[in-house]
Amino acid sequence: MQKPYRPHPTLADYYDSDDTRAGAINRMFDQSAPVYDAVNGFMSFGTDVRYRRDALRRAGIQPGMRVLDVACGTGWISRIAEEIVGSSGAVYGLDPSVGMLEVARSKRRVVRPIAGTAEALPFNGDEFDFVCMSFAVRHVSDLSSAFHEYKRVLKPGGRLLIIDLTVPDGRLRRAALRIYMKNIVPLAARISSVGRDSAQLYAYFWDTVENCVPPETVQSVLSDTGFDAINRNVALGMFSEYSAIKPLALKP
Ligand SMILES: C[S@@+](CC[C@H](N)C(=O)[O-])C[C@H]1O[C@@H](n2cnc3c(N)ncnc32)[C@H](O)[C@@H]1O
Q1: Whose CA is nearest to atom 27 of ligand 1?
Q2: Which fold has domain 18-169+213-245?
Q3: Do 67 and 129 form a contact (C-beta atoms < 8 A)?
Q4: Distance, CA of 164 to CA of 89 (rounded, Å)
Q5: What is the pLDDT of residues 53-90, one digit of tens each?
Q6: Which strand (E) or helix (H) includes residue 26?
Q7: Atom 14 of ligand 1 has which residue's CA nearest to it?
Q8: 72 in ligand 1 pocket by Cβ < 6 Å?
Q9: Every domain of the chain and the residues it spans
Q10: 101 C-alpha to ligand 1 centroid (Å)
């Protein structure tokens, strides 16, 4: 029996207990879906889409691959992956938030949208060459279940990429990012006409980043799951790109 790993402790400002957590997260994402792209663009000074493209290329996504974008949100990773894999490949975008999937579908970024969660992927084993999850690993209920699912659906030799915001090294950088993410972004969302309803989500984002298990734990859970070639690349001091490969043959 695998040991469960919660990505962060209970955050009582946003939900009562772990039993109500998934529902509360879903409601926040559903409510914020229409303004998610606008607030993200503001938060990242317009670099969010280019960064995702660079990260996918660094992780080795190739034409012809079958790709699963877990927690696809409004679908930017899926859209970029579609461009790269081309007509000989296929990209599936999965998310539990109906609101996020609706935006992804209406903007024609996700060609194959699927409702579901990382912890119980609705796919057969050995289906994908590349599985990606961006800015969402903090939202799963159990890292171990999600990573076992990623390994199950990947083909032997398939690649995993997990991108997430992590607390930067250095007290000054950490304090600056905290003030920006926890105070400035939610305030800007609150006073703008587009983001009023999403202010809570952006405050929650920072709290999940700050309370998340350290990168070493994410890597050790990947290792316990049986992934090979586990690596963490840090971009711009705060974007952690965890990559790993499903072994070609089962380990004894
Ligand atoms: C911050 S958004 C990231 C969206 C997208 N990957 C991106 O890069 O913009 C987080 C997404 O995770 C999804 N999510 C929350 N819990 C999840 C779970 N247990 N399994 C899969 N996705 C989940 C949310 O619905 C939301 O769309």
Answers
A1: 73
A2: Rossmann fold (3.40.50)
A3: yes
A4: 25
A5: 999 999 999 999 999 999 999 999 999 999 999 999 99
A6: helix 18-32
A7: 71
A8: yes
A9: 18-169+213-245
A10: 10
